[in-house]
Amino acid sequence: MPTTPSHPTGVPRERALDLLFSERGRAVVLVADGDTSMRPHLVGGDAVLAAPSSGRPDPGELLLYRQQDYWVVHRCLGRVTAKDGREGVRTRGDGRNVLDPLLQEADIRARIVAVRRRGEWRSLEGASARAYARLMAWHDLAWAAAGLAGGALGLATLIASIDQLVLRLAVPLAFPLFHRRLAPPTPAGADRPV
Asked: Could you write out the three-class secondary structure of the chain?
């Protein structure tokens, strides 16, 4: 049975996330319908289990951050220094062949510790899940670089299509091998009266 989002009604999103973290230590966040930025790992209707961010993010981790007026879950590719000297984190949605704008560490709200794909919860923690995440970060960096290089030759669309084909073929086979199944998360303190 799908878990409903952990967003209390009538509370601004930013404050709701803070409340959930302080009360429960984590939050279930739904992926918006129609969102394909993390395809094939996540699509609209899937969900993520977010935990407060602590320390520097590792390459491959999925991060939750606010962009304009919505939440984004994208993969951390590593720390970078921009041409203007600003330091930050480089991210990319697996379903996109372009890098995201530089993300400041202060804007990261959470790291993703589990995902619900096709109704099944899988952990993103543990040695095998971390190895998979690093492989995905390398994949994302390599294909983004290929897209940049190919863009000068008018091949960006073809390269993005090949990138997505590789993911659509590999992820359904590899993801379950590297990520253990979990019971659906239950809100801590759900049995306490309000």
From this structure: CCCCCCCCCCCCHHHHHHHHHHHHCCEEEECCCCCCCCCCCCCCCCEEEEEECCCCCCCCCEEEEEECCEEEEEEEEEEEECCCCCEEEEEECCCCCCCCCCECHHHEEEEEEEEEECCEEEECCCHHHHHHHHHHHHHHHHHHHHHHHHHCCCCHHHHHHHHHHHHHHHHHHHHHHHCCEECCCCCCCCCCCC
